[in-house]
Design goal:
Layout: H1 2-23, H2 47-51, H3 60-70, H4 76-110, H5 121-216, H6 220-223, H7 234-255, H8 267-300
Helix pairs in contact: 3-5, 4-5, 4-7, 5-7, 5-8, 7-8
Length: about 300
Amino acid sequence: MHTQDTISTTLQAPTDAIASIATCNIPITAIDPPETIDITPIDRSIPARQDQSTNGAELAIIFESVYTYFHGRVDPNDIQALTFCLRHLFCCSAKLYQNILPDLTANTSQQTGQAVQERDVLTTFCIWDQLQAIESLFERIESLCHLLNTTIPTILHTLENTCRARIWLVPATKVQISQPAQEDNRQPQEHLTTTQEIALAQLHKRLCIWQQSNAQRLIFVRQFADLQTVTPTLTEADTAFDLLQGHTSAIFGKILPHFLSLAATDDETATILLLDLMQKADELQFYMRAQLEPLYLLFQQYA
């Protein structure tokens, strides 16, 4: 019985306490509402670079012309593989020259002249992360170029076979199909002229950004001068960046735009363009593969 009274008293204690507080003459100060919180992005240092898209939207109009030219002649899967590789090569290059290399230059510049023990841990981690990202991009580009080099010969072989078939069939069907085909092609070409010019202007602007970024970056020989004895191939890494920028400018600024004005029967020019593309892809594949191990050794110095 005594236990139950104790429990009852204990349970009622909070209520009694509240009641006693209510009867006390204690001044209560009103609490002001919190001030408006200013939610501002932390880093506004590089908004222009962040606003630049890296999804390769400028290539859509060119790829449409590629699909149109090879339609009905080349396996759609081969054309899809071709455009897939080119789009991702473009995106890798955009990410490298618009984001990673400028950030890497900014971070390594902060550590110039500092001893290893004096370097900021966060900055060191960022450098390690960016070097690892470069190695991953080089590895992906190497794989994309390998796929290009296996896809383009298949397209060339099919193009040669369909070209022979067209030569065989043209005399029998020339009178029946030549005139309507010319009339059908005039109106769409006039309609796409403005769109093509806009797309090419955007593409040219993007390539100029890459060229400027590559020219302004701090070369690896200077960025990692204190590590040159450990990684003696820093000069080759700089050569790889220059080669990638030059070859991507040639691929997306010279080779692919030719498909916009390519005549439907100009297989000779199409073949030359594909061979030029394969040559560029082959050189990129070689240089990207050669830099994988040196880059791995380099970012391990920051691990």
